[in-house]
Amino acid sequence: MKFAHVALAGAIAAATGITWASTPAEAQSYFSGSTPIFQSDIEKRQREAEAQRAERAKNHTPTKYPAFMQGGDKPEIAPEKPPVVYLDRPEEPGSIIIDTNGRKLYYVLPGKQAYAYPISVGRDGFTWTGTERISRIAPWPSWTPPAEMRQRQPGLPVTVTGGLINPLGARALYLGSSIYRIHGTNNDRSIGRANSSGCFRLTNAHVIHLAGIAKVGTKVTVVSNYAGGVSEGAPLASLFGGFGASDPQPAVKGKAKVKAKATKAKAKAVKVSGAQ
Fold first, then answer.
1. Which own/partner contact pairs does 22-26 have at CB distance under 8 Å and 24+ positions apart?
2. What tens digit of pLDDT does each residue of 151-209 get?
3. Is residue 147 part of a domain?
4. For residues 45, 48, 50 and 55, what is the CA-based torsion angle, rounded to 10 degrees?
5. Domain containing 49: what range?
6. Which of 55, 167, 169, 235 lies 20 to 30 A from 5 at CA?
7. Quick one: 272 exposed, middle or buried, by C-beta within 10 A (0-12, 13-18, 19+)?
8. Is residue 255 assigned to a domain?
9. What pTM was computed for the model?
């Protein structure tokens, strides 16, 4: 019943926008009917709940997988093209920019455009920034968890062959000689979240599309926040970029220029002879 009161009090506070910021935390209270609910009680229950979760974690036995696992089926998955966005500054076409806070991977296209893939990124403590180049692209890759990951998560397999069970999904784009990859996932619900160990996940349909246009050697720049502006619609300036301007005349160079002079001289000679 007390928890119901807490939930109700929170809903009332959210709906009304009423706060008691000038009141000390231990004295803040909300009313559910005639029963006061103090902020200090709410915080105490939160601490108790966290302590209970920590205690359960101590007694939790991690799942132990076979040392060598089969990844399962490798179905045909059609590539899915992501939305195209517009960048407000020029970037290198054919390069990749990963915005970790924005949870987006941009594959740069000509004309200040880019494909924008939603991604999941590294959780707290596993984020990184820098520049790498794609060193390998593999369909239905096998997965060998690094030693430090197996130490953090006892019970992980030594290796898993490619397939739907494999957490790397349908494609993996390896980043230099690092342990990080851009790869697919069989859990679409993880997209948009920070829950990986430093890799970047796309849906299988999206990573197949990306793997079809990216190449070995493609530059990948990972940033916390992309410094340029991104819009879903074409910038207004691009719609009126040629308004009021005359079409430029092509320059005449080389042999074409000499030929033009010869033609002009011939025409002048004909005119003079006709006048005689």
1. none
2. 888 788 889 999 999 999 999 999 999 999 999 998 899 999 998 889 999 999 999 99
3. yes
4. -160
5. 2-59
6. 55
7. exposed
8. no
9. 0.64
